[in-house]
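Q: Mind making up any chain with structure tokens?
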Amino acid sequence: MTSENTRKDAVHEAATAGIPSALSDLGALVRIPSIAWPAFDQSQVQRSAEAVAALAEGTGVFERVDVIRAETGDTLPDGTAELGQPAVLASRPARNGAPTVLLYAHHDVQPDGDEALWDSPPFEPTVRGGRLYGRGAADDKAGVMVHIAALRAAREALGDDFDLGVALFIEGEEEYGSRSFARFLSDNADALRSDVIVVADSGNLDLETPALTVSLRGNARFTLTVRTLDHASHSGMFGGAVPDAMMATIRLLATLWDEDGAVAVAGLTERDADTPPYSEKTLRDEAGLPAGVSPIGTGSILGRIWNKPSITVTGIDAPTVAAASNTLSPAITVVVSARVAPGQDAREAYEAIEAHLRAHAPFGAQLEFTDIDCGDGFLVDTEGWAVGIARESLAEGYAHDTVDIGVGGSIPFIADLVRTFPGAQILVTGVEDPHTRAHSPNESLHLDTFRHAVLSEALLLEKLDRHRP
């Protein structure tokens, strides 16, 4: 029997020594443009899944590693069931009364967008200023590699004394709405069932301070078409008497916010919870808010981001500037993305927004709502035994006290995990920091944060391995 300190020291040494190879493997994953959206090359998502499966097999931990595509619940035109994107599922049973941990991340990424806005090619991993740049370098291929590197370290340091049951689930369509997620859980419930679930898809308070994410906002996203005319008409001949769709859309959307920029939709709730200090200066630095442009909303800044709803128009179909003509537009289509306060049902929030828009449609404009997608938020039960172990592991790995944070973004599938595995304790961790720019050009991973995250999770696995529920 090795002592607790000897085990920890061995895991610490193995995790530290494995960082260079983990970063090399991360770079190889970043080079794969695994974008799950149908407009992109879907063979790259399969290629990415196979690369992750090979990494899982290489840890020497698992008895079984599979690449699986679950049904989405929709039917293709030929009548066959539509399949989701390929996910990786690896598993090994617990031994000698040890608990089982499920490690989650996703290998698909956001589209790269306008490559001209990147300082280096989005799928060519590039290191500068202590950061690794590339699409997916942080969100969430770094999460994948934190799991892989931590498992390598635990296996190397503990050998046959590693009794922890482990399930590794690396999803392939998180950025595309996790359409087959619920079916994947039900199809593979036995392999995924665990005492603790670690979701490596969030971030930290700052570069030095590790965090457990204990609240997440939900989301309600939809497409809205505003129509005022049967066909386009000459703006000179009819302008001033006929409301065009652009005018109606602008006036309608403006009713969603008050003069402070806060959401002004009846029926959307707020969560009452304290937040740590966070200055406007920090907000300007982290969000890229220029001098002269004021923040929006009221109350504490983090309270606005973590605990209150927000509404953003994320896309619009309208005549382009280059193709503009003197024409009254008959219809305008926009995508509206709402973030829902933790604790409110996302569908309830969507219905409140739809009711508001219908009640405020100007000039009798006709409204059509399509592509509705709702995902509930999440509040962590912080009383479980695994939470204390996680805080301790993060503090050791980062050499800094752990804090609990909320996140303004959404991870809707966590609600599915809670429903499917109600007895599991869920720990939401991650490697992102306020300068990561996930989903944006020049997404990057802070290299020291990655090192700390790998060490923290390796120490977490060692502690879970010793724990007997």
